[in-house]
UniProtKB/TrEMBL annotation:
GO molecular function: serine-type endopeptidase activity
Record field: transmembrane: 270-293
Domain Peptidase S1, residue spans: 31-255
Lineage, uppermost ranks: Eukaryota, Metazoa, Chordata, Craniata, Vertebrata
Keyword annotations from UniProtKB, A to Z: Disulfide bond, Hydrolase, Membrane, Protease, Serine protease, Signal, Transmembrane, Transmembrane helix
Source taxon at top rank: Eukaryota
Signal peptide range: 1-23
GO biological process, alphabetically ordered: proteolysis
Organism: Canis lupus familiaris
Protein name in UniProt: Serine protease 48
Family matches, as SMART domains: Tryp_SPc (SM00020)
Pfam families the record matches: Trypsin
Length: 296
């Protein structure tokens, strides 16, 4: 718990306590044909927007933190991004809410595909409802027995997928690899594969950053996030950043940020407040110029 200067007490829910509410949707009805039966089936699914444009998916993992893919974040200015929670459609609904992003933390070893993972800290804490709940993260101390099938969710698809051994996935993407030992592996140690090759189901454009979730011992646990693939369900499985691989980084980063946030204003927060002041005084065009879109 931390106290603001106004005397208002703001509760910080440690990740350890989230296990009491995470991964347990209030509605647990069946999913038919790869589509949601009703809203609230995947209450941790979020939509990441840059301005008015939906760019990626993500998952709610606590009352103030979003997990997504690093390649989704082309711009470094946090407040240009918003996160929509509580909706299974791209448009706003009565159950959905929008939250602005306060801080972007990408993995320090991010490369072309490796370490494709990022954390977003929201400006304000999320109020949990039957439509908005966090998903559970894997436990650092327990070895997960991943079931035969898991779900990938997003706006491009909602599909039941089969997690594949890395060796099998490597053969599909790099069939000549074993014959050329010096050839670098396509699938990295921090990646996992999943797909329904027979029925050609896979994650697709717009799903990046979204969760690959498995129902384990009565709760939903995120084991991966959509990273990359070739096309959409073109007889190749999708490749996902392994949340299991980065679970320690996720929990350490959040804990450190929450502790530092109670003591002092860091550089990111200072820049955020400076940008807001510039916008208020100068307007967006004068503050940034005309070219503020990602990649431009």
């Amino acid at each position: 718990m931390r106290t603001r200067g106004t005397g208002h007490q703001e509760l910080y829910m440690p990740l350890s306590l989230l296990s009491l509410v995470c991964g347990r949707p209030v509605y647990s009805g069946r999913v038919v044909g790869g589509q949601d039966a009703v809203a609230g089936r995947w209450p941790w699914q979020v939509s990441l927007h840059f301005g008015q444009t939906q760019v990626c998916g993500g998952s709610l993992i606590s009352d103030r933190w979003i997990l997504t893919a690093a390649h989704c974040l082309k711009g470094w200015i946090p407040f240009l991004y918003t996160v929509r929670l509580g909706s299974i459609k791209n448009d706003q609904s009565s159950q959905s809410v929008n939250h602005r992003v306060f801080k972007i933390i990408t993995h320090p070893q991010i490369q072309h595909t490796s370490a494709d993972i990022a954390l977003l800290k929201l400006v304000s804490r999320v109020t949990f409802t039957s439509f908005i709940l966090p998903i559970c993260l894997p436990s650092i101390t327990k070895q997960l027995k991943i079931p035969a099938s898991c779900w990938v969710t997003g706006w491009g698809t909602r599909s039941l997928l089969l997690p594949l051994p890395v060796s099998a996935c490597e053969k599909l993407y790099n069939p000549i690899g074993p014959a050329l030992p010096e050839l670098e592996s396509v699938i990295q140690d921090d990646e996992i594969c999943a797909g329904d090759i027979l029925n050609k189901k896979d994650s697709c454009k717009g799903d990046s950053g979204g969760p690959l979730s498995c129902h384990i011992n009565g709760v939903w646990i995120q084991i991966g996030l959509v990273s990359w693939g070739i096309g959409c369900a073109e007889s190749l499985p999708g490749v996902y950043t392994s949340v299991i691989y980065y679970q320690k980084w996720i929990k350490t980063t959040i804990s450190r940020a929450e502790v530092l946030g109670t003591k002092n204003l860091d550089l990111t927060e200072f820049l955020y407040l400076t940008v807001l002041l510039s916008l208020a005084v100068l307007g967006p065009f004068c503050a940034f110029g005309p070219n503020i879109l990602p990649g431009e």
